[in-house]
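Kindly inspect this chain:
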Amino acid sequence: MARRIFPAAVALCLTVFTFVGGTQEAAKAPPRGGVEGRLTWFDRQGRKAGTVAEPGLYRTLSISPDGKRVAFERNDPQTQNRDIWWAEVGGGRATRFTSDPGWDAFPTWSPDGNRIIFTSNRGGVYDLYEKAVTGGADEKLFYQSMDGKGLMSWSSDGKFLLYYSLGQPTHVRLLAATGAPGRQPVPVVDPQFTSVSPRFSPDGRWIAYASNESGSNEVSVRSFDSATGAMGAPVVITRGGGRAPLWRGDSKEIFYITGDGMATAAEVQAGASFRTGPPKPLFPVPAAVLFWDVAPDGSRFLIPVSGP
């Protein structure tokens, strides 16, 4: 039977918010995964290939489905408040997207790129809010519940969202994008285990995530039926540790960070079942990085990097 283990180093690495006296609060220290520096492009050989926006304290980020824009969590240069911004992937200055005094994070693009759902503690609990990218200033409450939500992925058909509960332990959950306000999420992984960083494949057939359900901290994939919301058994695709999975835009390649911090690629060979080709090490990822994203064609990766 798989053992319930989650090494302290990894647990600290994945903790995003602190709990003080039973109340969920933003961490007073710089947030884990936050990097003071630049959003930097890396090619598959690990060579720097440009930057996005100005220097700042960056953390969660998301590239739009068409690959033309990136939304990210960054500190306000004057107030140091954590807000959502977006910018063109080719560079240039960032455009502010939110300005609430609360902590806004985990921006996630709609499949058509016209809206962003994000996490905010402006109401006390880290709930989900929605806003149009252009044409409106209103930020609407999208979904609220008792647990904090680190939103990670929106299915390509627009029907489902994936998030993980904030704090320790973390649990990956599937949420219908529409329905009654009190609708309940469905656990993707047995809650006796810790799971984090879920991502739908762009073709909508698979869910990738990191968990310790196999007895060690690895990346796994489950089949997914968008018509019913049904999920299959886990297929563990890493050995020796894996985290932060990403998909190429055609769902034919998967990327992850190994236990020793190496960005790695594997070709997907998925028919009735899910298999991957041999892992291909790409380049070492800076140690402080918890959040990253990949261009739809899989040619380059956007990573917050320390420095000017």
